[in-house]
UniProtKB/TrEMBL annotation:
Domain of life assignment: Bacteria
Family according to the record: Belongs to the HypD family.
Gene3D superfamilies named among the record's database cross-references: 6.10.20.100, HypD, alpha/beta domain 2
Keywords: Iron, Metal-binding
Name the UniProt record assigns to this protein: Hydrogenase formation protein HypD
Gene: hypD
Length: 349
């Protein structure tokens, strides 16, 4: 840490520099910053923007439609993390498909889904693989285990993403990024050092009040130079080389591809897909899924929220037509979503 917590607080509250837009990329950062009351400490010149680090929020509508097609038409058992079940697709959510007879099973890890497939050879099981560098290694391990176990009834609908090219796509949305500590714990810090060369500033941080305040104070101090910068303010967890074992399993099982992000469109090289030796576990190939372009509610501004172009409470249906109980868009569904955080903590800024 470059400053003690009280020093960090002083730096933040006494800031009189130019306006700064700081994007907290990780949904957990968004929620912790609200929960800890850190937004209330910030002077008006500092604007925090909630970015696209919630995996459920950035998963496009067409992906939900693909999962529903697999469940209703191909009668696959869909295994997924809980949040995805309530995300609206073009016509319905997976919860809606369940009401029409689809078998949707909530799991806590990809390996649970592999185990379920092994125990139920009579069923075709599809795991919905979404998420970033943090969750991808576990999905890769599940595929490797399925191959070792000789499973013929198991596949993944892959929408895993990687962050570096998303930062480039969002370059103009923020003056500095609060990088997600969990992602950097896997990916390391070389990527952030590279981004400095491309004019992108940021600080990787953890999730405690002290870590978040310190990271914000470091951004304010380093921004004064006018030069791009990077600092690792989470060294107790993030090592420069990250987690080489997790990186190796990802490289072995998956390869980069272009992919769609809700609100950001296609970002080149920011997606992952299974490599050729694992193609038999690719649900899109196994079920010959057609290309599906989903459409979200015309009322929903998730796309703009995810780019920092508007705040959740700028959306006309925020807190009225759209609530965590009855979400219209993905950002209100997930606990990590910006709209959910604003709703839960009464955010206005
Ligand atoms: Fe979409 Fe609801 Fe957020 Fe509006 S409040 S942007 S409808 S998720």
């Amino acid at each position: 840490m470059e400053n003690s917590v009280s020093e960090a607080k002083d730096i933040i509250t006494s800031y009189h520099g130019p306006n700064l837009r700081i994007m907290e990329v990780c949904g957990t950062h968004t929620h912790e910053i609200f929960r800890l009351g850190i937004r209330k400490l910030l002077p008006e010149s500092i604007r925090l923007i909630s970015g696209p680090g919630c995996p459920v929020c950035v998963t496009p509508v067409g992906y939900i439609d693909e999962a529903i097609l697999l469940a209703l038409k191909h009668h696959a058992v869909i295994c997924t993390f809980g949040d995805l079940i309530r995300v609206p697709g073009s016509e319905m959510s997976l919860a809606g498909a369940r009401q029409q007879g689809a078998e949707i099973k909530m799991v806590y890890s990809p390996l649970d889904s592999e185990e379920y497939a092994k125990e139920h050879p009579e069923k075709n099981v599809v795991f919905l693989a979404v998420g970033f560098e943090t969750t991808t290694p576990a999905a890769c391990l599940a595929v490797k285990k399925a191959r070792k176990d000789g499973l013929q009834n198991y596949s993944l609908l892959v929408a895993n993403k990687t962050m570096p090219n998303a930062y480039l796509a969002l370059k103009d949305s923020a003056d500095a990024f609060l990088y997600p500590g969990h992602v950097n714990a896997i990916a390391g810090t070389a990527v952030c050092e590279e981004l400095v060369k491309k004019g992108i500033s940021g600080v990787v941080t953890g999730f405690t009040a002290g870590e978040l305040l310190t990271a914000l104070a470091v951004i304010l101090k380093l921004s004064a130079s006018g030069k791009p910068f990077f600092r690792n303010c989470y060294p107790r967890v993030v090592r420069p080389d990250g987690n080489p074992a997790a990186q190796a399993v990802m490289r072995e099982v998956m390869e980069p591809c272009d992919t769609e992000w809700r609100g950001l469109g296609i970002i080149r090289g920011s997606g992952l897909r299974l490599r050729e030796p694992y193609h038999s576990f690719d649900a899109r190939l196994r079920y010959a899924l057609p290309k599906i372009t989903g459409h979200s509610s015309l009322l929903c501004r998730c796309g703009e929220v995810l780019q920092g172009k508007c705040r959740p409470n700028d959306c006309k249906v925020f807190g009225t037509g759209c609530t965590p109980q009855h979400p219209i868009g993905a950002c209100m569904v997930s606990n990590e979503g910006a709209c959910s955080a604003y709703y839960q903590y009464g955010g206005t800024e």
